[in-house]
Design goal:
The chain is α/β, with parallel strands linked by helices and about 280 residues long. It is built from 12 helices and 8 strands. An 8-stranded mixed beta sheet has the order 3-4-2-1-5-7-8-6, sandwiched between helices. Helix 4 (about 60-65) packs across helix 5 (about 75-100) and helix 8 (about 155-165) packs parallel to helix 10. It is globular. Adenosine-5'-diphosphate binds near residues 176, 212 and 214.
């Protein structure tokens, strides 16, 4: 059995979807058809008996549209206000769609502090565990509305890897606006070539994300996805970056098919989540 096929057996899966994959590029409005398909994918995995956690961006993008702003807000208070508006709109949509399949969803909002303090970290862990035991799909985002600059994760790629480590997930899937990792940013150079699998993460690989820092819609670019890959693989989870334009890619990955870039897990014996968060990754 090749390594890809082993993904069929992964039991606890964190799936992250970015703002650019949730919205129409032309208008910035939510892509409802894609959201419906995403929810069907997730509920079907749940029906197979898998534990599923969704890390969803989009609060600021949705709030920005609702507030009638043209550009992504840059002032922190404006971003936080947009997140406050957008997060509940987003959750309302998720609740409705999950409800159509009788699937219970829950909201978990976190800051870096949640991970740094032992008491809140253990609380968060226990809450996730309890929800998963109940068959619920937790939907996670950063608590953008209250997190200060110092206490922000700042991007959901990193947050999703932290969550994967916290819940001892065995697979993290990042849905992006691109097929996976290339040797360079393909939007900037036609010479960039696709990387199918990464078995070892070194400095040269980490540099591959440095060419760009994301779109007008999202925040992270490839840098944060590579940071996420380091955290996830060292915590013991495989990670795949795949294109979220067709969310059925989730099932294809779970069937062991060759989609996206696969980062192979190499659990570090001395892995400590608090140390990772403290060190700023
Ligand atoms: N080495 C690389 N391989 C692939 N994409 C890269 C690379 N370096 C930079 N990028 C850029 O990162 C973008 C994906 O990040 P981002 O815009 O934050 O998307 P998302 O909202 O899906 O997280 C790609 O569209 C691409 O332009
Ligand atoms: N927490 C923010 C998203 C942060 C983020 O990483 O965004 P993205 O690059 O779209 O995954 C929000 O909900 O708007």
């Amino acid at each position: 059995m090749n390594y890809r096929e082993q993904l069929k057996d992964r039991q606890r899966i964190v799936i992250k979807i970015g703002s650019s994959s949730l919205t129409h590029p032309t208008t910035g409005n939510l892509n409802l058809i894609k959201l419906e398909k995403l929810i069907r994918e997730l509920v079907d995995l749940r029906n197979q008996g898998k534990d599923i956690i969704l890390v969803s961006s989009g609060a600021i993008a949705v709030g920005k549209k609702a507030a009638g702003l043209k550009d992504r807000p840059d002032r922190i208070a404006q971003k936080q206000a947009c997140a406050a508006i957008g997060q509940c709109r987003l959750m309302m949509t998720y609740q409705k769609l999950f409800g159509e399949y009788n699937q219970i969803a829950a909201q978990i909002l976190m800051t870096k502090n949640t991970m740094l303090e032992e008491a809140t970290r253990v609380n968060a862990h226990n809450t996730f565990q309890e929800l998963l035991n109940m068959g619920v799909i937790p939907i996670v985002n950063e608590n953008d509305t209250v997190s200060t600059y110092e206490m922000r994760f700042g991007d959901n790629d990193t947050l999703s890897a932290i969550v994967a480590a916290l819940v001892e997930a065995d697979l993290l899937i990042l849905l992006s606006d691109i097929d996976g990792l290339f040797t360079d940013d393909p939007h900037k150079t036609s010479k960039a070539t696709f990387i199918d699998m990464v078995d070892h993460m070194d400095e040269r690989l980490m540099q591959m994300g440095k060419a760009s820092t994301g779109t007008n819609v999202g925040t992270g670019g490839m840098v944060t996805k590579l940071t996420a890959a380091r955290i996830a693989t060292e915590s013991g989870a495989d990670m795949v970056i795949a294109n979220g334009k067709d969310v059925h890619v989730i099932h294809r990955i779970m069937e062991g098919k060759q989609f996206g870039t696969l980062f192979v897990a190499h659990r570090k014996e001395e892995f400590s989540l608090a140390d990772y968060v403290e060190a700023g990754y």
